Write the C-alpha cells for this entry.
Amino acid sequence: MAQSNKPPSRWNDERVERIMGTLLQSGVIISAVVVLAGGILYLLRYARLPLHYENFVAERESLRGLAGLGNSALHGDGRAIVEVGLLLLIATPVARVLFSIIAFALEKDRLYVVLTLIVFVILIYSLFGGAT
Amino acid sequence: MPLLVVAFHVNIKYAIGASLISVIATSSGAAAAYVRGGFSNIRIGMFLEIATTMGALFGAFLAARLAGGIIAIVFGSVLIISSVLSMGGHEEKFTGPPDRWAIRLKLNSAYPTAHGPENYEVCRVPAGFGMMFGAGTLSGLLGIGSGAFKVLAMDQVMRIPFKVSTTTSNFMIGVTAAASAGIYLRRGFVAPVLVMPVVLGVLAGSVIGTRVLVRARTRWLRIIFALVIAALGMEMVYGGITGRF
C-alpha cells in the first residue's frame, strides 16, 4: 500500500474544502429558492384546503418518477416544484462526494479516490437502484 | 422530529421524511461557515462515511421491518446513556502507541487554536468505524442525522478534538442522510408541502448557529449538547412506552 512519509499538503486540502463549502452553500440556496417558489405557487392555489398528515398515504405516483416530476413542475404544479427543490437539496451532499473524488484525483491520492468512490456508489445505489 | 409528531400530530412516516431532508439542509447550509474555520478533516469524514452510508442503507431496510415502539425505546435509552458519557470529558492527552490505521489512512492532522495550529492523533480507528456503522443505521432507521453518535464515536473513541469532531460530523450527517433520503423519497415518505416550512426554518437556524459555534467555548458546547440529547432520549423512551410510534 502506498504510504507517503510527508504529511498531506494542508494548502491543497484547505483550498478543496473552501470550494466545497461554496458549492454546498450555493446548492442549498438554489434549492431553497426553488422550494420557496413552489410553496408560494401551491399556497396561492390551495390556501383554503386544510392539511391532513395524521394518516399516512404514500405520495402519489406521479411525484415519484423523475420524468413525471419534471413534467408536472413545468406545468406550474407547486408540489412538483417543491419536490424538484428537495431533489436539488439531496443532490448537494452527493455533489460534494463527487467533487471530492476529483479533488483527491488532482492531489494524486489514489487511496482516497477509491474510498470516496465507494461512498459515491452507495449514494447512487440508494437514489436509483435496488429495492426500497 | 419528536416536535413534529408530538406538537403537530404529524404521522411518524412523514416526520421521518421531513427530518431527513432537514438534516441535509442543516449539514449543507452550515458547511460553508464550518469550512472557513479550518476545523473539519475531510479524510476522516470521507473514510467514516463508508461506514455511515452502508449503515444508513441497512437502517432504511430495517425501518420497513421493525416495530416502531421497540426501536424508539432502545434508541432513547442509548441517547440518555450517551449524554451522560459526553459529560465525563477526557482532557488528558492520549499517550499510547499511534494507531496503524490512522497512519495508513492519513487521518492525523492539525487544527487551528488561539496559540497556533495544534496536532492531533486519531486512535482506535476500527472501533470508531464500527460505531459509525451503528450511527448510520440509526440515521436510516429513524430519519435523524445521528450527529450526536458520530461526535461520540469521534470524540470519545477516536479521541479527535471536540471542534474537529463536531464540524466533521456536520459534513458527514448530510451524506449519511442523503443515503437513506433516496430510499425514503422513492417510498413516498417525503411530503413536499410539509417539508417546505421545515427546510426554510432549518436553513435560517443553521446559518445563525454556525456563527455562534466558531466563537463558543468547548465546555459550554459540551453541556448544551449533553442536555439536548438527554431530553431527546427521554422523549423517545416515553413515546415508545406510550405507543406513539
In short: Strands of chain B lie at 109-113, 116-120.
